[in-house]
Amino acid sequence: MTDHASTPTEPGAVIDSRSGGEDERRILRRDPDPHLFRPVQFRSVKARNRIMLSPMCQYSGDDGFSNDWHFMHLGARAAGGAGWVFTEAVHIEPRGRITPHCLGLWNDEQRDRLARIATFVEAQGAVPGIQLGHAGRKASVGRPWEGARPLTPAEGGWADLVSASPLPYARGWATPEAMSLDRIGESLADLGASVRRAREAGFKALELHGAHGYLIHQFLSPLSNRRDDAYGGSFEGRIRFLLESIEATRAEWPEELPLFLRISCTDWVEGGWDLVQTVRLASLLKERGQVDLIDCSSGGNDPRQAIPIHPGYQVPLAQAVRARSGIATGAVGLIHSPDLAESVLANGQADLVILGRALLADPVWPLRAAEALKARNVAWPRQYERSNIF
Length: 390
Hints:
The protein is an alpha/beta fold. Helices cover 31% and strands 17% of the residues. It is built from eleven helices and 15 strands.
């Protein structure tokens, strides 16, 4: 009889003693790293873990240009161990900005500023990602700490807002112009040019912003899209602008690089965009093979929304989209603890965990989570190792 008791056991091994006590122990398997710290690959891009920095506006740019604040903000999260580090929403034209202090990518000088950030993020071992968007009717507002109210041109805002239909976001907001077919074509061309610049800047992942009541979402939702042409009415009409945006993106974005899409899975308002339509859209996108992951958020298109906010409140949306469409998803929404993040992935509810507030509060959250979950082969930057600090 083989003396199984003498078989060396490695950390994480699971022992089965059901067949006869100490002399009959058998190593069944070795526990792998926590799901949160297992590498994940989309197309040719492989990330060291499944933690993504959520795109979060910093409202700190000047004429669309990034600066040292953005370098610090994104670079710190890359050095802190995140696998995917995404910029905030970067806008494809000046009037598409949310605030006058939001970032843009409508000229080459803006591209070159962002390239410095992408290079540094990648050097820290993270995947540099960029989110592109257009605010539509929700453009030209003040920064949150200044009240987030609509701005007039005299206050630094602008008047020529556009949307799917001439419907203001809320009382007191400007009424946008319904986009003509020519204007839709121009916007798609603007998007393509920004995608090209993102590629030239060295970003390795790109996300289209189709959530939170911004332009693509304004076309998707029956609450903001009252068109009677090919871009409105039916489900097929309301998703057309998004599908054409994806086509315009893929025309400039390399086949070997991943494309993500942020969607508000529900408006949280009766008669609006909802999870059933999101699953239908996700199934179509899975079939078309152009989008690699749905970033599952919600709300933002109607002030009447009633959102049941609690830790992990949007995780069921990511789970439903993943299960019913077969496409990869990212879960976002008050995911604060390593245990909650790990459970989302271990239970098959999503493929990535997308963190916002947690990473704002602690840039090295991933490194602390690795210690808490006992992940192997996750190291602090050499500059921060205890042995190097005197």
